[in-house]
Amino acid sequence: MAAPLTPAQREELSAEAYSLNLRGFSAREIGRQLNVSHKTASSYVKAESERRAAERPNYRQFALDSHKRAIARCWDELDKNPSPHATAQLLHALNAGLSSIELIAGVRAPTNHKTEVRHELGGLDLDRLSSRRRSRWVCSYRRWRARPKPTLWL
């Protein structure tokens, strides 16, 4: 029976298991290379990924904090009785900051929705047009149909 691993050896094996996992090795393959069971290899990968995730900065919180600071600056400037134009700009910035916080926090759904624009020509009576107007309408309609179809982001 092998001697128990020291914490330093376990950390080294965890880092190696994590590296192999990032390169696409399965838990069984990692276990074979490190001479441990696949369950142990899997737990090493999980422990190392959790350790690295804890070390990463929380970008979501960073974004929230920066927007809160910007909103506080806007309020401070509004307390100084700025000109009407500056007041409008500060209120616009304040509204944008609050809107961004809502999006980051997940309180409000995103507003970009992909839609298609379709046009129906129901009930159009071309026989009532003169031949010259009808031919002009048909030409413009063909140009309209041949154009690239727009995608609107609402």
Describe this structure in words.
- This protein has 154 residues and is mainly alpha-helical.
- It folds into 3 domains: 7-55; 59-105; 115-153, no CATH class.
- 65% of the residues lie in helices and 4% in strands.
- It contains 6 helices and 2 strands, in the order H-H-H-H-H-E-H-E.
- It has helices spanning 7-22, 27-34, 38-55, 59-78, 84-105, 131-146, and strands spanning 114-116, 151-153.
- Strands 1-2 form a two-stranded antiparallel ribbon.
- The model has no long low-confidence stretch (mean pLDDT 82).
SSE pattern: HHHHHEHE
Structural class based on helices, strands and sheet pairing: mainly alpha
CA-based shape? flat
Strand-residue proportion: under 5%
Give the spatial strand order of the biggest sheet.
1-2
Radius of gyration: 32 Å
Strand runs, count: 2
Secondary structure: helix percent: 55-70%
Kindly report the average pLDDT value. 82
Measured between the Cα atoms of the first and last residue, the distance is 66 Å
How would a crystallographer describe the biggest sheet?
2 strands, antiparallel
